[in-house]
Amino acid sequence: MLSRTADHLFWMARYTERAENTARMLDVNVQTSMLPQSVQEQTQGWRALLGISELQYAFDQQYQSLEGREVIDFMVRDPGNSSSIVACLTQARENARAVRGTLTTEVWEIQNQTWLDMQRRLQTDLLETDPSKFFEWVKYRSHLSRGVTLGTMLRDEAVHFIRLGTFLERADNTARILDVKYHSGAPESGESMSQRDFYYWGAMLRSVSGFEIYRKVYRDVITPARIAELLMLRPDMPRSLLACMDEVVQNLHEVRNDVSADTERFAGRLRAELQFGKIEDILAEGLHDTLTRFLADIYELGNRVSRDFLVPLAA
After folding, report:
1. What would the pLDDT profile of 14-45 be if each residue is shown by its tens digit?
2. DSSP-H helix ranges across 36-130
3. 242 and 294 in contact (C-beta within 8 Å)?
4. What is the DSSP string of 25-60?
5. Which of 17, 87, 217, 289 could bridge to 169 as Cys pair (CB 3.0-4.6 Å)?
6. Alpha carbons 153 and 103: distance in angstroms, whole number
7. Is the pTM for the entire model greater than 0.85?
8. Which residue from 216, 23, 184 is spatially nearest to 201, judged by alpha carbons?
């Protein structure tokens, strides 16, 4: 496959997944902002979201104050934010259009219709009156895109590059969603969990479609340690770091070439650390430090994939 075609497929998938995960992170904060808390705690929550998304500086350049509605506007439709949901879905559509001949008609129509529907929804007051409903729509369109891709496309290199982009992005964002809690300065143990903490973790689990899975796996009270284990180390949890790395390693193997051996070994090491890791050791080391290191490794892995398979970055 031509590297330019692979590049468009890879980034189409990453931008679609990024839009979904931005919606998930925002939804966590919208839900938790409704809990009883001080103005300082609420501001801290929104600031943590911007910080973990690496958007704090860009936000401060455009806004004088930090309020929930401004953060939502910035991360959904602000033209100055290249990582906003609008920007991501626009870039996903543009990348799909560039390789229209490689995609099935159904896959292209999903990308195009999502972009058109987004324009119409943002012309209403839905984002102001019911932001969670808008975020659910973003998640639904992402689910639809993945389902149609697997249901209509030949399982060739095109699908493998799409899957590779999807799961690299998902691993990055799952780590960020989990890390938002620890940027807020909350304790990493469930020993003294307050009622507010309980509702926060419940909202976070729902944001990654993990609440029912948690109940099925643990059948007990929600604790931060078990949530961290579920979202990091469970291979059967679809959005866990280990499940994502399993997919990354598998799809890398399917598209391997003469120069990708080091990248495959790098990805294999990341998977092995999760596969054989223990949540007790991770918490003892510090969950935030572990997630920060993982995010740096995922960023490096993305650069290695670009170097080995995709269009070279401009000098």
Report:
1. 999 999 999 988 988 888 777 777 788 778 88
2. 39-52, 56-62, 68-76, 85-98, 105-122, 126-129
3. no
4. HHHHHHHHTTSS--HHHHHHHHHHHHHHTT-HHHHH
5. 17
6. 7
7. yes
8. 184
